[in-house]
User: Which sequence fits this backbone?
């Protein structure tokens, strides 16, 4: 089979296309013929040197395809099933940038008939992360769905990003009022296409004043991608007993917290990382994500605020570079 690999960390040029033997699924494992592989920032960051731990790595946490074979003990999936993948390369050497990948069955999720493989390969990291951010609030729902966030206001920082877009769509499906911040008119168009009712360009306005005009009592949940840059804004607009859910460190690795301004309003910081989330939360997220797909509430493409950028497998290095350079939308690798 064809696979893209790297044996040392570094720039995208360390990736190369090779031929490798096809592995057989062991007990509790599933072999998937990959049709699309999704590229996320975590993929290029790992390749660039954030982590390695293997002599050779096939990158790719997300993907979608068709079950090719199952190992002993796998009962819920069978050859021919359409599926999407989550955490495919976490703790393993072989992810989704290959024609075939063998995965633990719990990382292989049945793909609803309503979804194509482009959507399936766009789900794992963005949608599961967004789900956790939206279900992390004190007294909030642990599951999403119609009415789950009714009466709540959600602020999504960076609504044109992949996680931000998924958070907007899942929050709207669950009944929330959604405000998002963006840095350009182009990104504002994408955030509105995703479903945000209110879009604030933080470069051209007083973002805190504008958000508080929309939500005078403050917002219930902040889905935060850049806490080092945005903590002052988050503190200004979060309501009493609000939650600031932080899933990335864009723009800085640390920030200070003004203690009195934070504890006086009983604010909660919820840090989250997909890799250590736990099987129970990932399974719950996958179930809700599939329900959102069936309802037509979770989509990709220009009309959903997620422009798609396709690369063939042999141009995986260019796909990684596109994400590293800040491509707006979703980068996908076409394999099958």
Assistant:
């Amino acid at each position: 089979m064809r696979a893209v690999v790297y044996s040392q960390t570094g720039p995208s040029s360390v990736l190369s296309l090779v031929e490798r033997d096809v592995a057989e699924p062991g007990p509790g494992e599933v072999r998937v013929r990959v049709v699309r592989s999704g590229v996320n920032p975590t993929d290029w960051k790992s390749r660039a040197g954030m982590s390695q731990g293997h002599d050779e790595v096939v990158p790719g946490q997300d993907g979608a395809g068709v079950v090719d074979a199952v190992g002993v003990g796998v009962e819920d999936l069978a050859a021919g099933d359409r599926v999407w993948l989550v955490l495919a390369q976490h703790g393993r050497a072989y992810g989704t940038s290959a024609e075939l990948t063998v995965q633990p069955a719990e990382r292989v999720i049945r793909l609803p008939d309503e979804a194509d493989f482009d959507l399936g390969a766009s789900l794992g990291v963005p949608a599961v992360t967004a789900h956790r951010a939206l279900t992390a609030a004190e007294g909030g729902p642990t599951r999403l769905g119609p009415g789950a966030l009714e009466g709540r206001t959600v602020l999504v920082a960076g609504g044109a990003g992949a996680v931000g877009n998924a958070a907007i769509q899942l929050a709207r499906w669950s009944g929330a009022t959604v405000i998002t911040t963006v840095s350009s008119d182009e990104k504002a168009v994408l955030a509105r296409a995703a479903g945000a009712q209110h879009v604030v360009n933080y470069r051209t306005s007083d973002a805190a004043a504008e958000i508080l005009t929309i939500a005078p009592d403050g917002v219930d949940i902040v889905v935060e991608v850049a806490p080092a840059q945005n903590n002052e804004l988050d503190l200004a607009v979060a309501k009493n007993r609000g939650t600031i859910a932080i899933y990335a460190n864009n723009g800085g690795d640390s920030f200070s917290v003004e203690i009195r301004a934070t504890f006086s309003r009983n604010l909660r910081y919820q840090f989250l990382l997909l890799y250590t989330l736990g099987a129970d939360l990932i399974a719950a997220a996958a179930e809700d994500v599939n329900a959102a797909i069936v309802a037509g509430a979770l989509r990709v493409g220009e009309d959903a605020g997620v422009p798609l950028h396709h690369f063939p497998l042999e141009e995986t290095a260019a796909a990684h570079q596109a994400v590293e350079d800040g491509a707006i939308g979703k980068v996908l690798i076409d394999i099958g």
